[in-house]
């Protein structure tokens, strides 16, 4: 299967072909069709207005301290604008932390963003490493959006999103120097996911995920975790499942960071903004009662 051409695709079909010899598997199950539909229809202001700040569109959460002085200094009329800029800054800081853990990435490397959304992290990765970045999403709308952003930034020769199932990636064995899931691993079985990352990663390659997971110390998924699952139509895994599925698939954790304390300020600020979606309380309560954790795991493919 060749993946060297960068012909733009019109990712509208369930199965999309880049050329006659290359079929790209899209949604494979009724559940994945639901998820494709969910993200095709998703247009929440909390995602779009933040992305409008600088053209990097994220579908993940933020980390780091809130610059309260900047918000206070903005005055009543501009408070909302400043809060949006601040939430966006924290979301980009989250992506930066993920990229920090990819290790050394040469310019001729290929990176894989599994579950790439509107492509904010892909653009940041290319800007940092100058290499090729391949994104996969179930949503044709998201893939088109990400490709338009890359085109506008003049980097569409190196950054490309495609409609594709990350459990069946269109890459050769060992083709990727590094790969990641930024808040996209709760849509799939972890053993299937890590088996596929392990296949496409070169030996010595790096895998990174940032994800919410339920805490085995709490016992079982709390009612807040169940609410988050229902809200996003996803299936949050436990910390234990992540580590077990990695160990079973030649992914050996090098770094594990509990980002829960670092993400709380983001949620506290977001809960005070006009962009609330109604799920803020579930995140805040589950982080505070210890049933849910925000985790970064960086692993070596051995
Ligand atoms: N990583 C992005 C988007 C996170 S939203 C960001 O940080 O902004 C979750 C993403 O996972 C969506 O793009 C959705 O299409 C994708 N996704 C879920 N299941 C998938 C699957 N089986 N294959 C490919 N992408 C998937």
Structure description:
The structure is a single chain. The protein is of the alpha/beta class. It has one domain (13-301): Rossmann fold (3-Layer(aba) Sandwich), CATH 3.40.50. It is built from eleven helices and nine strands. The chain has helices spanning 30-41, 45-51, 68-73, 75-100, 120-129, 140-152, 190-200, 223-232, 239-247, 260-270, 280-288, and strands at 15-19, 22-25, 110-114, 132-137, 159-163, 176-182, 201-214, 251-258, 292-301. The strands form two sheets. The protein has a seven-stranded mixed sheet, sandwiched between helices. Strands 1-2 form a two-stranded antiparallel sheet. Residues 1-21 have low confidence and may be disordered. The site of S-adenosyl-L-homocysteine (SAH) has 24 residues, from helix 1, helix 5 and strand 4.
Structural class: alpha/beta
Q: Quickly count the domains.
A: 1
Q: Which value, in Å, is the CA radius of gyration?
A: 19 Å
Shape from CA axes? globular
Full CATH superfamily name: Vaccinia Virus protein VP39
Number of helical elements? 11
Share in helix: 40-55%
Percentage of residues in strands: 15-25%
Number of strands: 9
CATH topology: Rossmann fold
Compact description:
The protein is an alpha/beta fold and 302 residues long. It has a single domain, classed as Rossmann fold, CATH 3.40.50.150. It is built from eleven helices and nine strands.
């Amino acid at each position: 299967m060749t993946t060297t051409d960068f012909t733009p695709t019109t990712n509208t079909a369930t199965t999309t072909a880049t050329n006659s010899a290359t079929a790209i598997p899209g949604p494979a199950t009724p559940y994945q069709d639901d998820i494709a539909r969910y993200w095709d229809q998703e247009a929440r202001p909390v995602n779009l207005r933040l992305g409008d700040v600088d053209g990097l569109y994220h579908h993940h959460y933020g980390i780091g301290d809130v610059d309260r002085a900047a918000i206070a200094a903005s005055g009543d009329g501009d408070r909302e604008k400043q809060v949006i800029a601040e939430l966006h800054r924290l979301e980009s800081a989250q992506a930066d932390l993920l990229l920090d853990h990819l290790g050394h990435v040469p310019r001729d490397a290929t990176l894989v963003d599994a579950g790439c959304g509107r492509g904010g992290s892909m653009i940041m990765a290319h800007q940092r490493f100058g290499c090729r970045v391949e994104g996969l999403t179930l949503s044709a709308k998201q893939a088109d959006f990400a490709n338009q952003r890359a085109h506008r930034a003049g980097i569409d020769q190196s950054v490309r999103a495609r409609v594709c199932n990350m459990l069946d990636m269109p890459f050769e064995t060992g083709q990727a120097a590094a790969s990641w899931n930024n808040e996209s691993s709760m849509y799939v079985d972890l053993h299937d996911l890590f088996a596929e990352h392990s296949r496409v990663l070169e030996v010595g390659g790096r895998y990174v995920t940032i994800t919410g997971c339920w805490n085995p110390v709490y016992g079982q998924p709390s009612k807040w975790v169940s609410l988050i699952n229902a809200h996003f139509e996803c299936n949050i895994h436990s910390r234990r499942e992540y580590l077990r599925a990695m160990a079973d698939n030649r992914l050996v954790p090098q770094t594990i960071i509990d980002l829960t304390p670092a993400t709380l300020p983001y949620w506290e600020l977001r809960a005070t903004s006009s962009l609330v979606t109604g799920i803020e309380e579930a995140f805040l309560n589950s982080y505070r009662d210890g049933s849910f954790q925000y985790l970064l795991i960086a692993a070596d493919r051995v």
